[in-house]
Every structure is written in structure tokens, then in C-alpha cells.
Design a protein that fits this description.
Blueprint: H1 20-24, E1 43-50, H2 60-67, E2 71-78, H3 81-94, E3 101-105, H4 109-115, H5 137-142, E4 153-165, H6 166-171, H7 178-184, H8 188-201, E5 207-209, H9 212-220, H10 240-254, H11 266-274, E6 277-283, H12 286-294, E7 302-305, E8 313-320, H13 328-338, H14 341-351, E9 354-355, H15 358-363, H16 377-387, H17 397-414, H18 418-433
Parallel strand pairs: 1-2, 1-3, 5-6
Antiparallel strand pairs: 3-8, 4-6, 4-7, 4-8, 4-9
Length: about 425
């Protein structure tokens, strides 16, 4: 998220299913002196996340605590992933203040596996290698080091679509049918052309999209190679896919199609209910955030269509255990249960986070979301997940992304030229990577 993550949900409900093995098996052991918080064996597990992973909203913590009366779960949450990661790096360097479970965004997982494997627990010591077949191969392999250490269990993935306001489309004289729109904006050029039509008759104070940063992010999520190639070489400055996403975003900015809002800012949050933009590129995890910000008044005003330009993935996360965690064995039992197919399906049904578990993906294939006008979200995001490229992840993916979107904001808000802004982005990348 990400990139922050957010609340999502769907319509169908699943019965509560418990994986007994995940709750009872203990294939490894941490220091017994750290295994309890009191003589009675009570354990408090601290879970530190960014955005919203949906566990609390889906009632999973409460359910787990009922199944395990000796466990109390306390979650801390940072909305902005960049702030979260910076704080996590400080604590990893110092060795203190770490939670039992730490969330890791997919754009950071290469940093964990390639540069910080000594800071995180190898989950294979608790039997995690037995779970390999339960996750999509790309999700599993990204959290595995070259020497076979397993440093995280996958939560969600971020298959992409386009969310849009049907009421604003009607006011601007545009079609609202999701199938018709998918044809009209089959390409990103088509999406911008439709945006220019919208601008001509748009309701007052309403733009076509929230920000060109979100446009860039969704486009680059459609590419296999973005900032690094498979050999680990940094290629962002000569990758034609990055240039195309940059140029399209600059065109949107210069055409005045953006509401110029920083994602996750208070102003951006308010814009969902104010109708400040008509479309927003939305990975699956964005659905719940839309609902949370637009509120009950937005129900039935939103819909979802296939993304322009083909399938892609933006975001997704992992649950990892720092080596300095107090309760590693208990933490592992929790994250194995949270990422099991049954629990991933529950989070999707409540929050919209699309599962990385193959079993959960099959379970939710027919799901629809009445908030989004009955959109077949199981099919839309399921198809996108199947068709998305397996992305090459680099050590500084998230940092490169941040510098580029920062520079695009200069184009969007200050009218800085594309060339000058790109130069700023390159300097920023050089400074961050060193």
C-alpha cells in the first residue's frame, strides 16, 4: 500500500473455518524465557503494520484470541508506508522496539531478502516450507532468499482495476456500463481521451482522476521489469516502460485532468465523499479505503471496470518476524493462521484485499460487491491476478517509485517541465540509493 493499505469488503460471507494444524503445530522454538508475559503463560503479541491489512476489521484477532485464550494481540498502525518503513529501519538497526510481527510491503521485500536477512527470522525453522504449495509462486519466491530462508508469509496481492463514480459520469454525459467503458479505455490513450471529454462537462470542482502519481503507479504495475532487471541492475532510467508511464502521467497533468491530491493526505481522504475526482486506479486493496472515506452515502455511486492497458499488480504485503522479537514461536503460529486460505478469504469478503493463497482465490471467484454497484470483484480482480506479469523486484523499488512520483507532483502542481522534473527524479534516486 503499499503505499498504504486500506479497508475493503465484498458481499458473500464465509463460515468460520479454523486450521487446527496452524494453531497447534510448533515446528520450532524461541527462547523459553521469552515465551510468556507472566507466570500464568499469558502472551501479548505485538503486531506492527502500515495502512490497514484488514485483520482487525474482519474480526480475525478476536477469533484467534478466542481460540487461544492465552494470547492477546495488540496492533499498532502507521498509515503511510514510507513513514512506517523508515521507523522500522531505525529499530532494526538498534535492535530494540520491534514488534513480534512486522508487516513488509512487496516493494520492500527484496531489501529484506537481499540486505537484511540477518535481521529477520527464517520461518523455515517453524515449518513454513510445508506451506509453499498454498501460495502463488511469485508471492512465495519473492520472500525466499537465494540460500532458501523464508522471511515472510504473503497476505494479499494487488491486482488492478479502475474504480469510477457513475453519478459523476452521468452528469458529464459519459457511459456508465463497465463493459462499455472497458472497451472505450482499452488503452491508456483511450482513458485520457475519455478524461478530456469528461473535463468539458464535468461537475464543478471535479477532476478526471485523483493524481498523476496514482496513474503512474498503476501503469508501472503492469510491467514485468520496472526499476531493476532480473540480474539486479538498476534500469529505470533506460526502461521504455517507465518512460511510457511517465509520459502518460505528464500528459494527464498538462491536460488538467488531475485533482492534484497527495494520496493518503487528509485532503485526498475528504475528496472521496466530495466528488473531487471521477476515476481512481484501484488495486484490490483500495476498495475498502474507498468505502471508508466515501461512507454510506457513496454506496451504489461507485463501480469497477477492467483496467486500461492490460492486467497489472500494485502492492501486496508480507508478515515477517524480526530475529529480535520476544515471542517468535507464538508469532509464527499467528501469522500462519492469518495467512491461511480461510482467513485470507474472510479478509477479502470483509475488506477486499485480494488473496495470495491459491485456495482462497478459488473460494472468492464468484464474489460481488454491492457497494460498487454489484461489480463482480472476484472475477475482475481474479482475472487481473491471473494475467498480471511476475514482476522483477529490486532492493530499492519503493525508493525509486517515491522519487519519480514526487517529481511528477512538481509537474502536476507547479507546472515544472517534464525534462526538468525527470532530472529531479534522477537526482533523488541517486541520493537515496547512494
Amino acid at each position: 500500500m503499499p503505499i498504504a493499505r486500506a479497508a475493503k469488503r465484498a458481499t458473500a460471507r464465509l463460515g468460520a473455518v479454523v486450521l487446527a494444524g496452524a494453531l497447534l503445530a510448533a515446528c520450532g522454538s524461541s527462547d523459553s524465557s521469552d515465551s510468556s508475559d507472566s507466570a500464568g503463560g499469558k502472551v501479548t503479541l505485538n503486531v506492527d503494520l502500515f495502512g490497514s491489512f484488514g485483520f482487525k476489521e474482519a474480526g480475525l484477532y478476536e477469533e484467534y484470541q478466542k481460540l487461544n485464550p492465552n494470547i492477546t494481540i495488540k496492533q499498532s498502525d502507521t498509515q503511510d508506508e514510507a513513514d512506517y518503513w523508515k521507523s522500522l529501519q531505525t529499530r532494526l538497526a538498534g535492535g530494540g522496539g520491534l514488534a513480534d510481527v512486522q508487516g513488509v510491503e512487496v516493494g520492500r521485500i527484496a531489501s529484506v531478502t537481499q540486505q537484511q536477512s540477518d535481521k529477520f527470522q527464517d520461518l523455515k525453522e517453524f515449518g513454513a516450507d510445508k506451506l509453499k504449495g498454498e501460495f502463488a509462486e511469485a508471492k512465495w519466491s519473492a520472500a525466499t532468499t537465494k540460500d532458501g530462508k523464508i522471511l515472510g508469509l504473503g497476505t494479499d496481492v494487488g491486482p488492478e482495476a479502475m474504480c469510477y463514480r457513475t453519478d459523476l459520469f452521468k452528469q458529464a454525459g459519459l457511459p456508465t456500463d463497465r463493459e462499455e467503458l472497458a472497451k472505450k479505455w482499452a488503452t491508456w490513450d483511450g482513458y485520457l481521451e475519455l478524461g478530456k471529454e469528461y473535463k468539458k462537462k464535468a461537475p464543478a470542482k471535479s477532476a478526471w482522476l485523483d493524481s498523476v502519481g496514482s496513474l503512474y503507479g498503476i501503469m508501472i504495475g503492469q510491467e514485468k521489469e520496472r526499476y531493476y532487471d532480473a540480474s539486479g541492475e538498476l534500469i529505470y532510467d533506460k526502461n521504455p516502460a517507465v518512460k511510457e508511464a511517465w509520459d502518460t502521467s505528464v500528459e494527464a497533468a498538462e491536460a488538467g485532468l488531475s485533482a492534484k491530491l497527495d494520496q493518503w493526505s487528509p485532503q485526498w481522504n475528504q475528496a472521496f465523499s466530495a466528488g473531487s475526482f471521477a476515476t481512481i486506479p484501484c488495486p484490490a486493496w483500495m476498495l475498502g479505503y474507498v468505502k471508508g472515506q466515501a461512507g454510506d452515502a457513496g454506496k451504489g455511486k461507485w463501480d469497477i471496470a477492467k483496467l486500461p492497458g492490460g492486467a497489472g499488480n500494485w502492492g501486496g504485503s508480507y508478515l515477517s518476524i524480526p530475529r529480535a522479537a520476544k515471542h517468535k514461536e507464538e508469532a509464527y503460529k499467528l501469522i500462519e493462521w492469518l495467512t491461511a486460505p480461510e482467513q485470507q478469504a474472510k479478509v477479502f469478503q470483509k475488506q477486499g484485499n485480494f488473496p495470495s493463497s491459491t485456495g482462497a482465490i478459488e473460494t472468492i471467484a464468484g464474489a460481488k460487491d454491492e457497494y460498487f454497484s454489484g461489480a463482480p470483484i472476484g472475477q475482475i480482480f481474479g482475472d487481473a491476478a491471473k494475467e498480471s506479469p511476475v514482476q522483477v523486484l529490486g532492493v530499492h523499488d519503493q525508493n525509486v517509485m517515491q522519487q519519480i512520483t514526487n517529481a511528477l507532483s512538481e509537474v502536476e502542481r507547479k507546472g515544472v517541465s517534464s525534462d526538468k522534473a525527470w532530472g529531479t527524479a534522477k537526482k533523488g534516486v541517486d541520493n537515496v540509493i547512494g
